[in-house]
Design goal:
The protein is α+β, with helices and mostly antiparallel strands. The protein folds into two domains: 42 residues; 71 residues, Beta Barrel (OB fold (Dihydrolipoamide Acetyltransferase, E2P)). The protein contains one helix and five strands; from the N terminus they run αβββββ. Strands 1-2-3-5-4 form a five-stranded mixed beta barrel. The protein is elongated. The N and C termini lie far apart (79 Å).
């Protein structure tokens, strides 16, 4: 009788386990997506365009601290996520931008020229 009771408990636990795992992963996904927009705004950095290289799809930016990448202020070359971004800026422009590490490369994923 005790074996049957233990088997019933084990069956109930195993039957609900996939649903509880799904609910937990769904809750985590919702939490991360709701924080995604605030994370993107936290990742915005200030800089000045030094060079635009449309052929190489790269941009050189003198920037302040990149908090999301734990990087101090410096001048560096970035890849761009979308080459069309390079048409929006020119050397000397002050910009707000987001840089991320994508596929091992520091990449500008968003950029806005300041007025």
């Amino acid at each position: 009788m005790k074996k049957i009771a233990n088997l019933a408990v084990l069956t109930a636990v195993l039957a609900t386990a996939p649903f509880s795992l799904y609910a937990a992963s769904d809750a985590a996904a919702q939490a991360s997506s709701s924080g995604a927009s605030s994370a993107a705004s936290d990742a915005m950095s200030e800089g000045e365009i030094r060079k635009v290289d449309k052929d190489a799809k790269k941009i050189t930016i003198k920037h302040g601290e990149l908090k999301n990448l734990d990087m101090p202020a410096m001048t560096m070359v970035f890849q761009v996520k979308d080459p069309a971004m390079l048409d929006k800026v020119k050397a000397g422009d002050k910009v707000s931008f987001v840089a991320e590490k994508v596929g091992g490369q520091f990449t500008v994923t968003q950029i806005e020229a300041k007025q």
